[in-house]
Design goal:
The complex is a heterodimer of chains A (503) and B (319).
Chain A lengths: L3 E12 L2 E12 L3 E5 L6 H8 L7 E6 L2 E3 L4 H6 L2 E4 L11 H5 L15 H14 L15 H14 L4 E5 L7 H16 L3 E5 L3 H7 L2 E6 L2 E7 L5 H9 L17 E10 L3 E9 L3 E6 L5 H8 L7 E6 L2 E3 L4 H6 L2 E4 L3 H5 L6 H6 L13 H14 L16 H14 L4 E5 L7 H16 L3 E5 L3 H7 L2 E6 L2 E7 L5 H8 L5 H4 L2
Parallel strand pairs in A: 3-8, 3-9, 6-7, 7-8, 13-18, 13-19, 16-17, 17-18
Antiparallel strand pairs in A: 1-2, 1-4, 4-5, 9-10, 11-12, 11-14, 14-15, 19-20
Helix pairs in contact in A: 4-5, 8-17, 13-14
Chain B lengths: L1 H4 L2 H19 L6 H7 L1 H18 L7 H17 L4 H25 L4 H20 L9 H8 L9 H19 L1 H11 L1 H6 L4 H27 L10 H11 L11 H20 L4 H32 L1
Classes of the chains: A alpha/beta (503), B mainly alpha (319).
């Protein structure tokens, strides 16, 4: 029972500009559920990907059943009996359950290498029955709901006789009932001797399900405890760690009149009952877990997706925003979360990217090289974009500089309201600090700023006021001096009582 | 030199000069300005559509319906003329029908969100079908003499065919729009990353509708020119023109994936195809051979830069 099946010792992993994991320890026994928790960016997924051979470790060693092993690719790990179920689903929606379960290792009849459909369907049926799922193996995956697909993923892992099952946020898109059903399956697997790593943001689940808990923070190993011997409060403290450091200098900016008010915004399946205001010079932080509906809400305010319900008021006037074009005309700019797909035209140069949002302001709609260069150089200097010049292609810039170009594009439109969606995601510390300073300066100029961020220290550090979203709704609101990481995290994971602590 | 060779337009220019040298050696009638100018009518009708097709392909779209649209517009013109409303009002109607056909393409692409390839594949059948329904198997003839001057005549006081003048004028106008205006910039940006363009507030759908509508209008114009040149209307005119137009645009260096290309490249590609065709007809080489030559040119033009890359890559290693 307490035999160590998997041991990770002194694991370090660096990506360009970031240390993702720094000397991390982890072990896993047969027949246990071991929860791995930490804030976004703590290194949970990286650790998981190292274990499955997706990433290669820079330092440290992996022991499997006491023997040192190296996984050069996901296939190595698979052969060693390690199966992973990722956040994003990796199924083939047009194919049947059987085909998905046996993808990559089909049953074949000996002589002609013919696919043994009958055998595959039978074996799949058997696996599904073991998991107590009543589904026809011939059903195509796109007929199943998210929860059922997840169970099929587990059946797939079992078909490989996996002894170790890694699950990255398996419940993030499940209802409570579906999650309970999944937990029953996970418990049964544990009782059969399978070792399970369970990553989740929902601490209540972690406590309900796990035998042991390991906490990571900023890529560092914080500690491991038996679930029975630790409280939720302690785990949150471990996750948050430091007291607020002064990484985020906050300028005191006089807050002026109301710029934007939204009332009762809703969009089916994404968010509902969203009401808030933003004032001149105010920085409104929006915290919450991935999938809480923050980005969806911002996209709807910017006119990318239509609202089902609700009103948007700008400067005291009710406004309809049907497209990003409308939004920009009304002085709202939105820096999207995905800068490569939504923010930039990678194959175009810095100046073309900077002026794309203001093309209709050129005289007679004629391109004017001098004017473009002038505008671009102004922002290169203002944002200290590190580049060889205006004509460098966006694709050849580093992440931080790319983000600055997206910012330049929006600043060129001279917006009154700037919505920033994870503006510092995946950029290095220096660029991050530069972006924070810039946000402060923009607020000083009287812009109303909404910043969506999954990094709690960032949100707390630069916001005047913080809304916390949980499952599509505003779960709590904090003033700057009341905000603590603990309080926000509690509200974000939907623990009742958070509202009582706030306001 | 190597840097120049990376420019597609330069490769096309070399190929064009090559064709001129080869053909003038093979036939004494090739290097005759009058003959050369006359030969342009064989590609100018496709050329007037190609200048806009370049925009459509650069924006990451495709229009397979242009030749069918020509047939439909020409059929309507023929019937209008036969009903006695006069040739010039009929020609105007032809332009309007072509434009409507293009507008319809644009609307189904942007409203129903069908990929342009699929939408125009549907109207490719639809428009040709309408032409057959309208005309049956008959041909309409008997257009007045003054109408023929449009497609067969010369620009007053010169030896330059009217069609060629129209084509060059359009190429200059469209080239200017593509390379010098914010509209052209938007088209390139859409071809590279449509999502980012929407997020940046560009009117992506409006631009697409404009492109397809103008493409339809030019198909209508090409139908007028073609009718004026061949002096009759049948439902099967301009068969396969869409593929020849797309081939010329791609040979001109426009990326089929969108986002890249130039007007001068498209014009050079049209000249290259035109000169080759003219030269081969002088040498009595059957027309079917021409398709072989165009295919080969397309392959050469695509392979040449890659080949050079590989060569320079090897040199880079030894250096």
């Amino acid at each position: 029972m307490s035999r160590k099946l998997l041991e990770l010792r002194g694991i370090s992993k660096r990506f360009p500009g970031v240390v993702a994991l720094d000397n991390v320890e982890f072990d896993l026994k047969a027949g246990e559920i071991h929860a791995l928790v930490g804030e976004n960016g703590a290194g949970k997924s990286t650790l998981l990907k190292i274990t499955t051979g997706v990433h290669q470790l820079d330092e440290g060693s992996i022991f499997l059943g006491g023997e040192p092993v190296t996984f050069n690719n996901p296939l190595d790990a698979k052969k060693a009996g390690i199966a992973a179920i990722y956040q994003e689903h990796t199924c083939f929606p047009q194919l049947s359950i059987s085909e998905n379960v046996f993808m990559g290792h089909p049953l074949v009849s000996n002589r002609l290498q013919r696919i043994d459909w009958k055998g595959m369907h039978q074996r799949t049926k058997q696996l599904l029955q073991e998991l107590e799922i009543n589904l026809d193996p011939k059903t195509t995956m796109n007929m199943l709901n998210v929860a059922e697909r997840q169970l099929v993923e587990i059946a797939k892992a079992l078909s490989l006789d996996s002894k170790i099952l890694l699950m990255d946020e398996p419940t993030s898109s499940l209802t409570i009932q579906e999650a309970e059903r999944l937990f029953a399956v996970i418990r049964r697997l544990r009782d059969d001797g399978v070792a399970i790593v369970f990553i989740s943001h929902r601490l209540d689940e972690v406590f309900e399900l796990s035998d042991r808990i390991t906490v990571l923070r900023d890529g560092k190993y914080i500690g491991t405890k038996d679930t029975k011997e630790i409280t939720t409060q302690e785990v949150i403290r471990w996750m948050v760690g430091r007291s607020m450091d002064e990484l985020y200098p906050k300028k005191d900016v006089p807050i002026g009149g109301e710029l934007l008010e939204v009332k009762n915004l809703a969009r089916h399946g994404e968010f509902r009952e969203i009401s808030f205001t933003v004032r001149e010079g105010e920085i409104l932080g929006i915290a919450g877990l991935v999938g809480a509906g923050r980005t969806e809400m911002a996209r709807a305010i910017f006119g990318i997706t239509p609202l089902d319900q609700g009103e948007i008021w700008l400067n005291g006037e009710r406004t309809k925003i049907k497209s990003p074009r409308d939004a920009l005309r009304h002085g709202i700019a939105y820096l999207p979360e995905d800068r490569q797909d939504h923010g930039l035209v990678l194959a175009m140069d810095i100046s073309q990217n900077t002026t794309i949002s203001i093309l209709d302001r050129f005289k007679y709609r004629l391109l004017n090289k001098d004017q473009e260069t002038e505008i671009t150089e102004k922002y290169i200097e203002l944002l200290s974009i590190r580049t060889s010049g205006c004509t460098q292609l966006a694709r050849n810039l580093s992440g931080g500089n790319q983000q600055k170009v997206v910012l330049a594009k929006w600043m060129a439109t001279e917006p009154r309201i700037l919505i920033l969606d994870e503006p510092t995601k995946g950029i290095d510390v220096q660029a991050k600090a530069a972006v924070h300073t810039l946000i402060g300066e923009l607020a000083e100029q009287g812009l109303g700023i909404i910043i969506i961020s999954s990094e709690l220290p960032e949100v707390i550090g630069i916001s005047d006021r913080i809304l916390v979203m949980h499952e599509g709704r505003i779960a709590a609101e904090f003033k700057r001096d009341q905000a603590t990481q603990e309080g926000i995290l509690q509200a974000a994971i939907g623990r009742s009582g958070a509202e009582a602590d706030a306001v | 030199m190597r840097k120049l060779l990376r420019h597609w337009e330069f490769i096309l220019l070399i190929l064009l000069v090559g064709v001129f040298i080869l053909m003038s050696n093979l036939s004494p009638y090739f290097l005759n300005l009058r003959n050369l100018l006359d030969s342009t009518v064989h590609f100018t009708e496709k050329g007037v559509i190609a200048v806009c097709m370049a925009f459509i392909i650069i924006s990451g779209n495709m229009d397979l319906s242009v030749a069918s649209n020509m047939a439909m517009s020409a059929a309507v013109m023929g019937i209008a003329f036969r009903s006695g409303i006069g040739i010039w009002p009929s020609a105007l109607l032809c332009l309007l029908v072509g434009m409507a056909g293009g507008l319809f393409n644009g609307l189904i692409i942007t409203r129903v969100k069908l990929p342009a390839m699929v939408a125009t594949l549907a109207t490719f059948s639809l428009y040709r079908g309408i032409a057959y329904v309208l005309l049956g198997n008959q041909a309409i003839t008997g257009y007045p003499y003054e109408f023929a001057t449009l497609g067969q005549g010369y620009f007053p006081g010169t030896n330059i065919p009217n069609q060629f003048v129209i084509f060059i004028a359009l190429a200059v106008i469209f080239g200017f729009i593509l390379h010098k205006t914010t509209f052209g910039r938007s088209v390139y940006a859409i071809g590279n990353n449509e999502d980012a363009c929407r997020y940046s507030g560009l009117p992506v759908d409006r631009i697409k509708v404009i492109l397809f509508t103008v493409n339809g209008l030019l198909a209508g114009l090409a139908a007028v020119l073609l009718t004026s040149r061949i002096y009759s209307t049948r439902p099967n005119i301009a068969l396969n023109y869409e593929l020849e137009i797309i081939t010329a645009v791609v040979l001109g260096g426009v990326s089929i994936k969108g986002g890249r290309g130039s007007m001068i490249g498209v014009v050079l590609a049209l000249f290259l195809i035109g000169a080759s065709r003219f030269g081969m007809s002088l040498l009595n080489i059957p027309g079917q051979m021409m398709t072989v030559v165009i295919g080969l040119m397309l392959i050469i033009a695509i392979l040449l830069p890659q080949l050079l890359d590989r060569l320079s890559g090897k040199q880079g290693k030894t250096a």
